[in-house]
Amino acid sequence: MSASVSRRTFLGIAGGAASVLGLVACGGNDAATSGDDASAASNDSSDKTYIVATDTTFAPFEFTNDANEFVGIDVDILAAIAADQGFTYELNSLGFDAAVAALESNQADAVIAGMSITEERQEKYDFSDPYYDSYVCAAAAEGGDVSSLENLNGMTVACKTGTQSASWAESIAEE
């Protein structure tokens, strides 16, 4: 495999493994889930339906299945919280950056998505307790051009903006 394929592999794994998952700005939420979950929650609480934004491209945490339904660990957690706390929600798949922008512009009540909890973000958002710890890692094709971080010198490495892996990559870029 070429070095660019190795970089893509590196980027995909590093970006995927780089987040701490949390429900941001816990205001309650409804998802485009089965009617049973939403109706059970609506019997217990007010008539307000919370708007929850997400990025459904982060399997197994949140993604869209073959039936075009939102599924995953985060979706299940959200449904369980809504049932327990008695609220309804509408889950909107916006992509990560747009989900955060929707929260900041009051177009969403909460975000459920993989997000690293940083001091800067804690100043802006009210996080739930984290329920998954991750780390930055890298992978490259066996026998490829990349076998160590030093092999990345002079190469372009891409990471998803705003992720723990992007912060890490920036921190070692000049080393």
UniProtKB/TrEMBL annotation:
InterPro entries: Solute-binding_3/MltF_N (IPR001638), TAT_signal (IPR006311). Keywords: Signal. Gene3D superfamilies: Periplasmic binding protein-like II (3.40.190.10). The keyword Signal applies. SUPFAM superfamilies: Periplasmic binding protein-like II. The keyword Signal applies. Residues 51-140 form the Solute-binding protein family 3/N-terminal domain. Signal peptide: none annotated. This is Transporter substrate-binding domain-containing protein. It comes from Collinsella ihumii. The lineage of its organism: Bacteria, Bacillati, Actinomycetota, Coriobacteriia, Coriobacteriales.
